[in-house]
Fold each of these.
Amino acid sequence: QNENHDISLVKTGCIGFCKEEPIVSVSIPGKALVLLRKVHQEDAERVISLALQGDVPSDRVLCKISDWDHITGNLVYGNGFDSIPEYEEIPFFAHQKKVILRDSGLINPEDIDEYIGIGGYFAAFKALTSMEPDAIIDEVKRSGLRGRGGAGFPAGLKWEITKKAPGEEKYIVCNADEGDPGAYMNRNEMESDPHMLLEGMLIGAFAMGVHEGLIYIRAEYPLAIERLMLALDQARSYGLLGKNIFNTGFDFDIRIATGAGAFVCGESTALAASIEGKTGRPRLRPPRLTEKGVFGKPTDLNNVETWCNVPVIIAKGASWYSSIGAKGNTGTKVFSLVGKVDNVGMVEVPLGTSLHSIIYDIGNGGALGREVKAVQTGGPSGGCIPVRLFDTPVDFENLNKVGTMMGSGGLVVMDEDTNMVDIARYFINFASGESCGKCVPCREGLKHMLLILNRIVAGKGTHEDINLLKELSETVQKTSLCGLGQTAPNPVLTTMQYFLEEYDDLISPEA
Ligand code: SF4
């Protein structure tokens, strides 16, 4: 706040257009919300000049937002603002549908009043004061919401199973242990709009009759932890967590458990063990977490994005939600679009959108004008899809059909300069390093796969090595105990399926 001028400097989360960051949004009541791109310290005076006089630094302007009227009031244009492109005219934003990310980068994540000011906690109020718990579960079931952590299990059904599990003491847990290389969707959601996550968990807890929630988050996300802690304090001070929420007699609170960044702790049973203070190692299932989860009690585990979908489903209704996306794959999905793509950033699209649309319409194709060759979806558990299959709709089933998976939402683009064998080696190296070592196929199999890949990449491999690599991949996939080992060979198998010539090219003629 400046004593001479009514200007506030407010921290927001990320609006998602990483390529153009640092982005500063200048909100001019009665005029516009203008986004300025690549703003640096030396631009400060020009930014203030825009706020005071409407003096627009044209080389920095990205766009203006016309429908963002919940804070600025009704917007009136004119006075030199007409020439600024609208938000919807920027291809990166125009082809997205922002449901989860609708306020990311626009509100102050450290101020609960801003969240409440745009309708935040309305859904929780509606759910707790006017809906029966079973009706909430039914609404989530009818919305078609599927778990966004990768498996795509129907969220409402999981809630129902947890609710019906015998026992009084139960937990809900948020999996915020995002560990895929190149994936930062959950981090963005928590840093930019932490109350949305808390509100989703509050609604879920009431529906399932649970009184304690946990957010399991990796320690490598300090800002997300800091903002969540602040959001929890604020929610408690507003009576949105704690005793007798909304005078309904319902008690619920959430605490944070930090993980040490072991990738395997994203697996549900390893995550539960880690919360209990044990070594984060997977165990055989069944029993599933819904029967025997954290501290041996029935536990509903959903990831950050799944919880974040809940408030909007309750506020706008299952019919509205299920009208977005595709049959059996409703709603939107947030992706981190990274790698050798022009527009790197955080992207939200309806499920069923084609890879082509994400990579070319939103991502603007390869970085530096290079040709895109493939995209990796699903992180180290996923596969590499060649350009000729980019018409594939991004949904749980269609990605499986081409040998990969949705995963939590990482999309890593590769261009004509990328060696696909080297990519497979990178992911096997990652998975081998993250293997917990409990079962032989994963512990030893991945090590051997890495040795073979190292040989091939060094030009010392043989055709025999290629055959052995395929055989080992299939064995590790079929015989490993948990999802890490079962899916780790996917990058090898898909690069062999679609780019076998690149393996052959690395084998010397004499071998
Ligand atoms: Fe551990 Fe790998 Fe076995 Fe999973 S598959 S239990 S990560 S050794």
Amino acid sequence: MNLSLEGRTYVVMGVANKRSIAWGISQALHDAGARLIFTYASERFEKPVKDLATTLDRQDSLFYECDVTDDAAINATFDQIQQDVGTIHGLAHCIAFAKREELNGEFVNTSRDGFLLSQNISAYSLVAVARAAQPLMTEGGGIVTLTYLGGERVVQNYNVMGVAKASLDASMRYLANDLGKHGIRVNAISAGPIRTVSAKGVGDFNTILKKIEEESPLRKTVSQEEVGDTAYYLLSDLSRAVTGEIIHVDSGYNILG
Ligand code: N5H
């Protein structure tokens, strides 16, 4: 089994800063020898992403702005990637959004607007991106997305994002079924809570982390690097018979009743 990703190219969508899980995934893929392509949502993230990429010990990364709410932008991005590199071997989708005001209080108060917005950015984007990436994945490969336990059961305050993650999980399985015939595997990582830009503004985040430290089977929180290593597994040939799966990288927290 060749564990090296040398000669392979992976698209990573959703690096915001050095704490991003997407950056942990980027580093794991890079360490395994992969070439990286980064996409970012808007101009605002261009410099942070480019600055991070300059810390890598190879400078052949490529960068594209890609607003995942815009089908034309997605198609233009992947057309450009096809022109610039030809084949890609995988993709990490690390994108989600919900209105801050819908991430506390009661789910029953979720607005139609907020519901549809979080579905659009956090779940439909995987479908749109998978469709655009498929023609570039001429040698097969892997697509990985990031989900959370709040999509499988009720987690306080996760609310509209929980419903979006349930939709993402189901989309991941349907995509796995469709794309399997092209040798493309689609999986999700359910990471335990990590202090990222997503968690910013979550009032009791320390309490949430402490609970994982005290109660999870492994008695520790998880890191971006640990999630990155599982993404590496899912995007490499080691996982060649695994598709439509959610792997929990959460110190075992999800098995608790
Ligand atoms: C139960 C919890 C705590 C409640 C937290 C929910 C977090 C939801 C994730 C979404 C993606 C956060 C989000 O959209 C925040 C935005 O409203 C405001 N932030 C931004 O606009 C920033 C600037 C940009 C970069 O962010 C985005 N998303 O574009 C869950 C936690 C225990 C675990 C957790 C934090 C899960 C998760 O899904 O991230």
